[in-house]
Amino acid sequence: MKNTLLLESITGEEISANLKPLDNIRGYEVRPGFYEVNGASALPGGVNFTLASHNATSCELVLFHRKSFRPFVSIPFPEHYRIGNVFSMIVFGLKIDEFEYAYCLDGPYDPEKGLIFDKSKYILDPYAKAVTGQSEWGVRRIYEPDCLYKSRVVRNNFDWGNCKQPLIPIKDNIIYELHVRGFTKDASSGVSHPGTFAGLMEKIPYLKELGINAVELMPIFEFDEMAGCREVEGRMLLDYWGYNPVCFFAPNTGYTAQLEYNQEGLELKTLIRALNENGIEVILDVVFNHTAEGNEQGPFFSFKGLDNNIYYMLTPDGYYYNFSGCGNTLNCNHPIVRQLILDCLRYWVINYRVDGFRFDLASILGRNEDAAPMSNPPLLESLAYDPILGSVDLIAEAWDAGGLYQVGSFPSWNRWSEWNGKYRDNMRSFLKGDDGYAAAAAQRIIGSPDLYPPEKRGSNASVNFLTCHDGFTLYDLYSYNSKHNEANGWNNTDGADDNRSWNCGQEGPSDSEEIRQLRFRMIKNACAVLMCSRGTPMFLAGDEFGNTQFGNNNSYCQDNEISWLDWTLAEENKEIHDFFRYMISFRREHGVIRDNTAPCSLGFPSMSIHSLKPWDDNFDWNSKMVGVMFAGIYPSGRDDILYIGINTFWNPLTVELPELSPDKYWIPAVDTSRGTAAVITREEILDENVYIMGPRSVLVCLVKDRA
Length: 707
What we know:
Elements: H1 2-9, H2 12-18, E1 23-25, E2 28-32, E3 39-43, E4 46-52, E5 58-64, E6 73-76, E7 82-83, E8 86-92, E9 100-106, E10 109-110, E11 115-116, E12 175-178, H3 180-184, H4 197-202, H5 204-210, E13 214-217, E14 221-223, E15 230-232, E16 235-237, E17 245-251, H6 266-277, E18 281-286, H7 303-311, H8 335-352, E19 356-359, H9 378-385, E20 393-396, E21 416-419, H10 421-431, H11 438-445, H12 454-457, E22 462-465, H13 474-477, H14 513-531, E23 536-540, H15 569-572, H16 574-589, H17 591-594, E24 607-610, E25 625-633, E26 639-647, E27 653-656, E28 664-671, E29 690-693, E30 697-705
Parallel strand pairs: 12-13, 12-23, 13-18, 18-19, 19-20, 20-21, 21-22, 22-23
Antiparallel strand pairs: 1-2, 2-8, 3-4, 4-8, 5-6, 5-9, 7-8, 10-11, 14-17, 15-16, 24-25, 25-26, 26-30, 27-29, 28-30
Helix pairs in contact: 10-11, 14-16
C-alpha cells in the first residue's frame, strides 16, 4: 500500500524528470515499472502495469477500446522488464478513460501437472479494481470465447474527510444480514434507486430506528449474475446471491445507481461512509474458497491462465478438488495465494473502510495444498495478526462442502469469531418442542462455553443466528414443515432438508387466526431468545417484519419477489417489527447479556441455568423448559439481573424464579403468550417468585429494588 500511495503522490513534473521513457514498443513509449505495486495504477502521464506469474514464459499487455472485443494494440513486456516472476511496465501517454486492458500469457502446457497456459486467452488482472461489462444487471452480454472479462483503471480519489469508523466490539453488535439488490428492489421499498447501494443508503434511517449497528452485505465483489442463467417456467433465473467471484478487488457495478466509469466504488464508498457516520459498521461477506472459473468444463479467464497449479487445489492428475461445491477450490495456503488474499483484505479496509469480513466456507481457508486440514493454517494466522486488519471483525463460516465441520474448533488465536451453526440447529429444535435439546439450548444461551471456553476464546467467539440467507426466513421457519424449491428448477432436490421447522398446523399461507397468532408467538420467541443470548446476534433482513420466501430455502437464483423484501409487511406485521425493535433495545440496555460485569449485590453468578425449579440444571430427555439468569451491575453501580425462561411445551408451566433479598423483587418485562401485549409496560410484582408461563412462550423478568 505504501508504494500505491507513492505512485499517487508523484507529480507531472516528477514523472517528466525522473521517469522518462526508455523504449518504444509498437508506437508506445515505455519503461520498467513499479514491481511492488500489483495491478494497474494511474500516473501523471501514464499507467503502471504489474503482473506476477510463477510459470509464465512471456506476457503481453493488451489494450482495447471501450466495449471492443478486439485489441487496438498488444504490448509485450521485454525480457528485461521482468524481475523474478514479476512483469512491470509503465506505458506513457495512456488516458485511463480511453482504454480497457487484459493480459496474454504464454507458458508450458501440461494438464497432468496443472499447467494449462494458452496465449490465445485474454486474462483478467487479478488485482483489477474494476471489471468491464458488468454494470447492467440481468442483461445478457455478448462475449467472445477468448475475451470474457477486461479491466479498467480506477481513480482512487475519494475523500473520507474526518469520517471515523464506529469500532464497536463484536459482542455489542447486532448484525443484520442483507442482499444489496433484494433489500430495496421491490417497489414497496419506496426508495429512489431500488436494488442499489444508493437505495440501501436511503434506508439508513430505518436501520437506525430498528437499532441495527452492523450490516453484513452478501457478496459485493464483482460477479456475473448471468453466468449459468436459465429459464424455468417462463422466469429467468440468475446467479442472484453472487457467491461466485470474478474478481476479488472490484466492487459489483451492477449494484450502482449510476455508471462509474474509472471511478468504480464511488457509490459503495459513499454508502459505507454514511453508514459509519450513523454508527453502523459494514461487514462484507467474502468468498475466497473458489472462483467463477469452475472446473475443467468452466470458463478460462483468470487464475487458470495465470498459474493454474498454484491458485487452485489440484488432484495428482491435474483435476480440480471441489470442497466448495462450485467446481474448484482456491489453494489458500500457498504463499502466493495467501498474499493475494491478505492484499485484498487490506485493500478493502484501507480504501473502503470496511469494518469486518464474514468468510464463506472458511474451513477451506485452513486446508493444505494436498487438501488436508491444518492445525495452524498460515493464512488464518496471518489474518489474525495482521496490523492493518487489527480492528476488523473476522467471522468464519466454520465448515465447507467437503465435510469439514469446525464449529467450536476453528483455529482462532482468540481473534476469529464463528457462525455458530450449533446455536442455529439446537435452538431451532428446542424452540419447536423437540425432545432432548434442553441442556444444549441452555449452553447456547449462555454463550456456548462447551464450544468456546471463555478462558480460551473470550466473549467474541460465537455469532448466534437462527436464520441467514441460506435457509428459511424466520417467518417460513414457522410456516413450512419442508422446503418448497420447485421454482429453482431442480425438482425440489436442492436446498437443505434438515430445516428443524414447524408449520404450526398448516403448510404455507393460512387464513386461521389461531395459526397466525401461534406463528407470531413463535417468531417472538425466537427473537427474544436470540437477543437474550450471550454472543453476537445476527438475523436475516426482513425477519423483523415477517418477510417470506414462500417456503424456498435456497433462493440463490431467484431475482424476483421470492427474494426481494416486501416492505408492505413492515406495516402489516407491525406487531413483529415493534417486538424486534424492543428486544434489540433491551439487549443494548442490559450489558450483562453481552459480557460479564462486576458481581451483583446478591452474590449470584454472572450466568446460571435453571429448570422449573431455581438452580436445578438437571434436564431429562423430555424437558421442555429452560431458564437462564444473567447477573451483574450497570455502569452506574445498580444491580442488573434478568431471567429468561423458555417454555416449549404445548401446555402452561409453573416456573419458580430464584429467590431474592427482601429489598428486591421480580417483574415480568416480556411474555410472548400475551400476544400484542408481549412487551409488558405496567409493573407487575411477583411476590412469590412464581410465574405461570403460557404454552410455547418466552418470559423475560427483571429485578427491581423496593422503594
